[in-house]
C-alpha cells in the first residue's frame, strides 16, 4: 500500500475459510480483500486468525525466497517468479523451444516445526507440484469453476524431439501431423465452440483435436511449424497457429463447411473466418442494443398485459431481431427489393412488430378478441399465423419490402410456399440474377430436424424449375420441441444436419453473443449472394417460458428451467458486456435502459384506449355464388393451326426420336380430321393462352413428356439429347408470354407447396401442378387441406392453381387408380375450390382456358384420364374448340324420345365411355347418360334442367367406378337427394363398387369382373 507520504507498507489481511472455496470463490474473496484495502475498509478482523500466509515475492523479481516467520505464523508459502532457469537465460527462444526447456516457478515452504513436520512440508510441496502439472484434475477444476469452456493443456513428457537421434525425421513427422491438426480444426472445431448459452452439454475436448492424438505435446507449442494456408507468417509456433484456429473455429460461432465439395466456396468461407477480427463498430453495437431493447420490451409488455395468452414468445432468442434487421439492411443496401419470409409461431409477433413494422395496435387487437378486418372472408386465423407485408428501412434510409407468408400450424409446410412465392416474384420482375427478390426461412430446431418437407424443399433449391438463388435459413434452436429434448427428437448431432445434403454451409452461433449473431448473418447473406446457394444459421438459444406461456416446462425439464430462471436476458448480458469492455459508458447504458422503459410505456400507451371494437365478422360468412356464368373460350382456327404446327415440327438440324417423329407427323392434320386427342387439346389450351400473353408454368413428375408418353412438351434430339421447347418459342417477339414446363423432383408436398406459392403471387399466370398418378396427391395433403382449400377462408389468400390428377379405375391396382375424388368433395365449401372431371379433350381445353379468362381466382382440381388419352371415341371435333365454353353438365348426345325415358344415368369421367358402349351393345336406347363435368360448385340447376326433360322419369341413378364409400357418390347423393331437389316421384339410386378399404383391386381379372357387374347394374331396371 502506498501511504500518503509516498512510503509503502505491507498489509497482510487474510481470506477466511479458504479451504472451503473453489478457485472462483477464492479469487472473488481475494478481490474483495483487495477492494477493501484499496478503499481503506480493512478492519482488524481481516487480519485475525491467519493460519497460512501466501507471499509472492516473484512479482518483484525474486526467483526463490525463504521468508522468515513472524511470531504467531505457522507457515508461509512463497512463490518466486516464473521464468526459464537461470542457466538458460541467454539461450535463444527457438533453441529453448527445440530443447523443450520450459519456464519454472520456485515455491518454498517456511514453517514452524511445532506446527508442521519437515516431511509433511516436503509432501506438501510435492503435492503442489503434482497439482501444477495437472494432477488430480487441478486445471479442469479451475477452468470449470471459472467457466472457461476449454480443455486445459496437459503435461506430458517431450518425446520425439530432434535430439532423439531421428532428428529430421521426427520434425517432418510432426510437421505432417500439425497440418492434420490444422485441417481437423476446420472440420471439427465447431464441436468445441461455445455455442450453448446454458452451457448444458460442455464439450471441452475431442480426440481428434487433442495434441496427444497427433503425437504432439505441450512442449511442441513453442516450436515453429510451417502452416502456409493459415493466414499470417508461413512459419509460426504451434501455439500461435492453434490460437488462430481456436479463435476462428471454437469461439461463439461454429462453422460447418468442410462437407462442401467446391474448393472456391470453402476457401471463401475460410478467408472470412480465419485470422479475421469480428469486432463490430460502436454504431453497430448501439444498434444491436437498441434492437434487443425493442425485442425484449415487446415480449415483456405482452407478458404483463396479456397474461396467459398464447404468443409463443421469443424470450431467449432475442438476437433474432438484430439478425433479421441486419439481413434486411444488407439486402436493401445491395439493391434487393423484397424479402419473402416464412416462419413458424415462435417470435412471429415480435418479428411482425419489430422487423416488418406492423403496428402494435393491429397486433394487439388480435389479443383482444378481434379478428383482423383485412381477412376478407371472415373465419380468420389465430394471430401467430396470419401473414403481413411491410416496409423495412435500414439505417442508411434504404428500404425493402418484407412479406411474411401466412402459414398453418403445420410446421415447415410454409417453406416450399415461400420458395414458390419468391420464385414467382423473380419471374414476374425479370429477376434472372435472383438477387432482387429473396426468400428467408425461419425454423424451429425440432421441426427443422423432424419434418420431411424441409428436406424436400432443400432438395429443390438448386433445380432450374425451383431455385430461388439460395435461401437464408435461420433455425431458432431453443434446444426443445414443445417438451421433447434433442436426444429424443433427432438422431443427428445438430438440428441442422439435413442441410448438408445440399452442401449448404452451416453456421452455429451462441444466441447470447448478439455481436456474433449479427456478424454471422452478414457472412451468411454474403455467401448466398456470392454463390446463389442455401445457407443455414443455427441460432443456439433457449426458451424462457414453456412451449407457450401457459405451459409449465419444469414438469419435463426441471434442471434446464432452473438454469434458465437464473439466466439473465440477452439484452442484460449484452449491456453488461458493453460496459465491462468499456464500449459504452455507464451513462450510455442508463440511456439504453431508459430507451427500453420508454418502449414499454409506449406500448402500454398505444393500447390503453383500444377497447376491442365490436366484432365485424358475420357469423354466416358471405353468400355462396356457386356456378359462375360461362365465359366463351373458343379460339380461332388459325391460332390452333399455328400451335399444331409448332408442336409437330422441329427446327432444321434437329433429329427427333424416329418413333415419336412418326407420331407427331400423324398429328399434323389432327384439326382437319376432327380428331383432337386429349394431349393435343391440352397443349392447344396452353399454347393459345401463351399466344394471348398469359404465361404458363406446368410442372410435375415427368410432365414434359407426360407420365403416359402423351404430352411431349419438350422434344429431345435423338443424337445429342438437345432439347426443343415447342411452345416456348411459339410467341417469340409477338407479345406472347412464356411457357415454362419442368419435370419436378419426386416429391409431392414441396412441389405442390411451391406451385401454390407461385400461384398466390403470379395471379395472371396459369400454374399447373400434375401428379404422376392422382393417388399420390395424399403425400401433399397438408398443402391441399391447409393452403389450397382453406387459404382464402383463413387469410383471404387466393390462388388459381390447377391440379391435374390422373384418375380412373382401369385395373392398375390400389395405388394407380384413385385421386380420391371423395376427399376433395369433402373439402369443398364456400366456393373455395373447383372440382372438375372433364370427359372430352374439348372440355379440358375450355376448362383450362376458363381458369384465366375469368376474374376470380380459385384453385381448380381436375381429374384427368389415362386410357382416354388414346381412346378414339374420346376425341373432339375441331369446331368444339373454335367456339363454345366449358360446360358443367353434358347432356346426352343421343337425345332419346323424352316420354319414353324412365331412368337417367348420371356419371363423371371415364365411366361414361363404358356406359355408352354398353348402352350401344345392349340396346338400352331409352336411357340417357348425363355427364357431370363439374362437381363443385355443384351445377344443380343444369342437372335438374336435364332431369326435367323427361316427364315419366322414375329414377336418377348415379353410376361410378369407385367403391361406394369413395368417389363422388356420397357428395352427389347429398346434393340431389338429401336436399330434396329432385322432382316429386323421382328416386335417387346409385351403382358403385362394393364398399372397400382399398380403392381398387390389384387383380386385373377381379377388376374386369367388377366392371362388368357395374355395367349390368347400371342399366338394370329396378
Ligand atoms: C406438423 C406439425 N406437427 C406437430 C405440431 C405441434 N407442435 C407445435 S409446436 C411444436 C414443437 C416445435 O418445436 P420447434 O420446432 O423446436 O419450435 P419451438 O416451438 O421450440 O420454437 C409441435 C410439436 C405442429 N404444429 N405441426
Ligand atoms: Mg425448439
Write a short abstract of this structure.
The chain has 1022 residues and is α/β, with parallel strands linked by helices.
Write up this protein:
The chain has 1022 residues and is of the alpha/beta class. The chain contains 32 helices and 27 strands. It has an 8-stranded mixed beta sheet. Strands 17-14-18-19-21-20-25 form a 7-stranded mixed beta sheet, sandwiched between helices. Helix 5 runs parallel beside helix 6 (238-249), helix 9 (320-333) runs parallel beside helix 16 (514-531) and helix 22 (678-691) runs parallel beside helix 27 (841-853). The longest helix has 24 residues, at 282-305. The protein is elongated, with a radius of gyration of 38 Å. Bound molecules: thiamine diphosphate and magnesium ion.
Amino acid at each position: 500500500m502506498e501511504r500518503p507520504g509516498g512510503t509503502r507498507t505491507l498489509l497482510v489481511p487474510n481470506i477466511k475459510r479458504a479451504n472451503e472455496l473453489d478457485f472462483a470463490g477464492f479469487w472473488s474473496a481475494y478481490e474483495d480483500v483487495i477492494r477493501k484495502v484499496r478503499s481503506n475498509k480493512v478492519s482488524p478482523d481481516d487480519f485475525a486468525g491467519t493460519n497460512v500466509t501466501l507471499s509472492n515475492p516473484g512479482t518483484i523479481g525474486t526467483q526463490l525466497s525463504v521468508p522468515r516467520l513472524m511470531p504467531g505464523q505457522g507457515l508461509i508459502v512463497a512463490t518466486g517468479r516464473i521464468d526459464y532457469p537461470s542457466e538458460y537465460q541467454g539461450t535463444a527462444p527457438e533453441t529453448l523451444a527445440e530443447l523443450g526447456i520450459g519456464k519454472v516457478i520456485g515455491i518454498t515452504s517456511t514453517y514452524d516445526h511445532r506446527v508442521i513436520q519437515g516431511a509433511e512440508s516436503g509432501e506438501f510441496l510435492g503435492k503442489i507440484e503434482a497439482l501444477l502439472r495437472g494432477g488430480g484434475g487441478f486445471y479442469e477444476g479451475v477452468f470449470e469453476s471459472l467457466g472457461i469452456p476449454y480443455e486445459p493443456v496437459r503435461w506430458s513428457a517431450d518425446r520425439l524431439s530432434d535430439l532423439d537421434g531421428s532428428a529430421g525425421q521426427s520434425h517432418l513427422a510432426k510437421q505432417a501431423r500439425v497440418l492434420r491438426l490444422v485441417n481437423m480444426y476446420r472440420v471439427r472445431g465447431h464441436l468445441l465452440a461455445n455455442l450453448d448459452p446454458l452451457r448444458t452439454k460442455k464439450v471441452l475436448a475431442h480426440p481428434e483435436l487433442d495434441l496427444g492424438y497427433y503425437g504432439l505435446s505441450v512442449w511442441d507449442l513453442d516450436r515453429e511449424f510451417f502452416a502456409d494456408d493459415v493466414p499470417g507468417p508461413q512459419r509460426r509456433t504451434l501455439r500461435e497457429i492453434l490460437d488462430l484456429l481456436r479463435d476462428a473455429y471454437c469461439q461463439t460461432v461454429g462453422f460447418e463447411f468442410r462437407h462442401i465439395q467446391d474448393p472456391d466456396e470453402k476457401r471463401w468461407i475460410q478467408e472470412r473466418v480465419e485470422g479475421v477480427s469480428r469486432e463490430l463498430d460502436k454504431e453497430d453495437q448501439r444498434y444491436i442494443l437498441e434492437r434487443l431493447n425493442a425485442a425484449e420490451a415487446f415480449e415483456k409488455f405482452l407478458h404483463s398485459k396479456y397474461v396467459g395468452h398464447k404468443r409463443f414468445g421469443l424470450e431467449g432468442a432475442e438476437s433474432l431481431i438484430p439478425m433479421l434487421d441486419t439481413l434486411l439492411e444488407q439486402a436493401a443496401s445491395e439493391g434487393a427489393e423484397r424479402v419473402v419470409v416464412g416462419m413458424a409461431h415462435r417470435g412471429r409477433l415480435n418479428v411482425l412488430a419489430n422487423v416488418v413494422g406492423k403496428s402494435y395496435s393491429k397486433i394487439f387487437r388480435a389479443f383482444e378478441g378481434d379478428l383482423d378486418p383485412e381477412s376478407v372472408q371472415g373465419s380468420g386465423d389465430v394471430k401467430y399465423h396470419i401473414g403481413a407485408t411491410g416496409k423495412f428501412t435500414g439505417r442508411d434510409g434504404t428500404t425493402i419490402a418484407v412479406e411474411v407468408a401466412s402459414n398453418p400450424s403445420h410446421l415447415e409446410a410454409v417453406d416450399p410456399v415461400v420458395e414458390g412465392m419468391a420464385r414467382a416474384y423473380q419471374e414476374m420482375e425479370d429477376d434472372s440474377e435472383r438477387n432482387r427478390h429473396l426468400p428467408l426461412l425461419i425454423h424451429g430446431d425440432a421441426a427443422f430436424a423432424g419434418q420431411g418437407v424441409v428436406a424436400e424443399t432443400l432438395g429443390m433449391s438448386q433445380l432450374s424449375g425451383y431455385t430461388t438463388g439460395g435461401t437464408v435459413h435461420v433455425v431458432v434452436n431453443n434446444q426443445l420441441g414443445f417438451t421433447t429434448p434433442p436426444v429424443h427428437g433427432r438422431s443427428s448431432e445438430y438440428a441442422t444436419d439435413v442441410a448438408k445434403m445440399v452442401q449448404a454451409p452451416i453456421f452455429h452461433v451462441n444466441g447470447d453473443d448478439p455481436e456474433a449473431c449479427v456478424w454471422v448473418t452478414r457472412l451468411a447473406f454474403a455467401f448466398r449472394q456470392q454463390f446463389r446457394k442455401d445457407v443455414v444459421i443455427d441460432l443456439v438459444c433457449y426458451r424462457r417460458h414453456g412451449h407457450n406461456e401457459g405451459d409449465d416446462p419444469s414438469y419435463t425439464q426441471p434442471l434446464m428451467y432452473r438454469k434458465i430462471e437464473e439466466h439473465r436476458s440477452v439484452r442484460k448480458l449484452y449491456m453488461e458486456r458493453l460496459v465491462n469492455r468499456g464500449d459504452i459508458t455507464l451513462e450510455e447504458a442508463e440511456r439504453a435502459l431508459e430507451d427500453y422503459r420508454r418502449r414499454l410505456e409506449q406500448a402500454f400507451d398505444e393500447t390503453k384506449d383500444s377497447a376491442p371494437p365490436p366484432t365485424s365478422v358475420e357469423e354466416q360468412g358471405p353468400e355462396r355464388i356457386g356456378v359462375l356464368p360461362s365465359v366463351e373460350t373458343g379460339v380461332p382456327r388459325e391460332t390452333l393451326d399455328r400451335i399444331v404446327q409448332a408442336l409437330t415440327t422441329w427446327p432444321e438440324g434437329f433429329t427427333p426420336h424416329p418413333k415419336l417423329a412418326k407420331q407427331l407427323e400423324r398429328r399434323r392434320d389432327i384439326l382437319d380430321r376432327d380428331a383432337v386427342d386429349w394431349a393435343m387439346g391440352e397443349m392447344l389450351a396452353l399454347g393459345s393462352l401463351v399466344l394471348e400473353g398469359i404465361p404458363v408454368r406446368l410442372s410435375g413428375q415427368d410432365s414434359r413428356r407426360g407420365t403416359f408418353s402423351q404430352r411431349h412438351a419438350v422434344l429431345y434430339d435423338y443424337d445429342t439429347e438437345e432439347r426443343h421447347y415447342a411452345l416456348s418459342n411459339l410467341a417469340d417477339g409477338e407479345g406472347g408470354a412464356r411457357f415454362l414446363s419442368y419435370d419436378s423432383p419426386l416429391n409431392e408436398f414441396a412441389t405442390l407447396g411451391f406451385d401454390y406459392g407461385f400461384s398466390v403471387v403470379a395471379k395472371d399466370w396459369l400454374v399447373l401442378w400434375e401428379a404422376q398418378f392422382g393417388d399420390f396427391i395424399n403425400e401433399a395433403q397438408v398443402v391441399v387441406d391447409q393452403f389450397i382449400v382453406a387459404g382464402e377462408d383463413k387469410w383471404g389468400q387466393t390462388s388459381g392453381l390447377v391440379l391435374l390428377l390422373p384418375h380412373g379405375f382401369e385395373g392398375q391396382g390400389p395405388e394407380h387408380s384413385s385421386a380420391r375424388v371423395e376427399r376433395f368433395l369433402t373439402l369443398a365449401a364456400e366456393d373455395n375450390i373447383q372440382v372438375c372431371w372433364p370427359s372430352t379433350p374439348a372440355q379440358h381445353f375450355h376448362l383450362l382456358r376458363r381458369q384465366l379468362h375469368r376474374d376470380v381466382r380459385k384453385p381448380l382440381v381436375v381429374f384427368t384420364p389415362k386410357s382416354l388419352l388414346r381412346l378414339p371415341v374420346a376425341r373432339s371435333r375441331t369446331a368444339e374448340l373454335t367456339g363454345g365454353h366449358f360446360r358443367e353438365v353434358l347432356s346426352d348426345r343421343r337425345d332419346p324420345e323424352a316420354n319414353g325415358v324412365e331412368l337417367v344415368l348420371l356419371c363423371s369421367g371415364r365411366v361414361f365411355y363404358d356406359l355408352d358402349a354398353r348402352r350401344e351393345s345392349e340396346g338400352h336406347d331409352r336411357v340417357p347418360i348425363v355427364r357431370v363435368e363439374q362437381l363443385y360448385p355443384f351445377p344443380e340447376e343444369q342437372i335438374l334442367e336435364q332431369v326435367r326433360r323427361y316427364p315419366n322419369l322414375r329414377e336418377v341413378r348415379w353410376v361410378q367406378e369407385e367403391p361406394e364409400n369413395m368417389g363422388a357418390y356420397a357428395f352427389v347423393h347429398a346434393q340431389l337427394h338429401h336436399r330434396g331437389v329432385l322432382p316429386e316421384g323421382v328416386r335417387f339410386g346409385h351403382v358403385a363398387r362394393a364398399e372397400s378399404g382399398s380403392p381398387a383391386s390389384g387383380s386385373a381379372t377381379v377388376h374386369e369382373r367388377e366392371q362388368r357387374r357395374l355395367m349390368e347394374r347400371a342399366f338394370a331396371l329396378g
